[in-house]
């Protein structure tokens, strides 16, 4: 990482050890949700499913990164705010049964109920990918304009352009 990327020394950032195509896929999911672009989401989902564990891992790091950015701005994100934001972000982007699973899994996750979140996901790891991508889009847009969000994620992930 370059020293001019505004990332404090020692701060964990997205993409530390993952292949570029995984980083691209994670950012593309966030971008599709940020744009409410269902067609783009439909194009990216198969790539995400192919690398589901790595994409999930990358999205967890992106979510933590954006969470720290939001805290730095003073914007307050309570569990209720994130539940509403994720539900609003996935609305009409997913088939109803998946939308319900993502929203309810995020509700449980946002209050630390990981076992309940697992139950709502019904063994589908893509539920967690969708909920994290939707959360990243929602929380990212609370801090950045859309173009800034994508370019910031690309920069901190070590991707060019």
Question: What do these coordinates show?
Answer:
It is a single chain. The longest helix has 22 residues, at 52-73. This protein is 72% helix and 0% strand. With 161 residues, the chain is an all-alpha fold. It has one domain (20-156). Helix 1 packs across helix 3 (52-73), helix 1 (20-35) packs antiparallel against helix 8 and helix 3 runs parallel beside helix 7 (125-143). It is built from eight helices and no strands. The protein is globular.
In short:
Keywords: Membrane, Transmembrane, Transmembrane helix. This protein is mainly α. It is built from 8 helices and no strands.
**How would you spell out the order of helices and strands?**
HHHHHHHH
Compute the number of structural domains. Answer: 1
Global geometry: globular
Low-confidence stretches: 1-15
Topology, number of strands: 0
Largest sheet: none
Alpha-carbon distance between the two ends: 14 Å
Q: What structural category arises from helix and sheet content?
A: mainly alpha
Taking all residues together, what is the mean pLDDT? 87
* Secondary structure tally, helices: 8
Bin the strand percentage. Answer: under 5%
Strand-helix topology:
Layout: H1 20-35, H2 38-50, H3 52-73, H4 79-90, H5 96-110, H6 114-121, H7 125-143, H8 146-156
Helix pairs in contact: 1-2, 1-3, 1-7, 1-8, 3-7, 4-5, 4-7, 5-6, 5-7
């Amino acid at each position: 990482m370059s020293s001019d990327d505004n990332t404090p020394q020692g701060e964990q950032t997205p993409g530390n050890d993952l292949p570029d195509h995984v980083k691209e896929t994670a950012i593309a999911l966030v971008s599709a949700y940020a744009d409410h672009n269902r067609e783009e989401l439909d194009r990216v989902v198969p790539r995400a499913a192919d690398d589901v564990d790595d994409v999930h891992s990358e999205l967890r790091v992106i979510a933590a990164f954006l969470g720290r950015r939001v805290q730095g701005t003073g914007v307050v994100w309570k569990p209720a705010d994130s539940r509403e934001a994720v539900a609003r972000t996935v609305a009409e982007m997913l088939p109803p049964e998946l939308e319900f699973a993502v929203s309810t899994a995020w509700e449980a996750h946002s209050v630390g109920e990981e076992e309940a979140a697992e139950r709502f996901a019904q063994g589908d790891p893509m539920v967690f990918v969708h909920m994290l991508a939707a959360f990243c889009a929602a929380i990212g847009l609370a801090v950045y304009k859309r173009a800034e969000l994508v370019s910031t994620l690309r920069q901190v992930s070590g991707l060019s352009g």
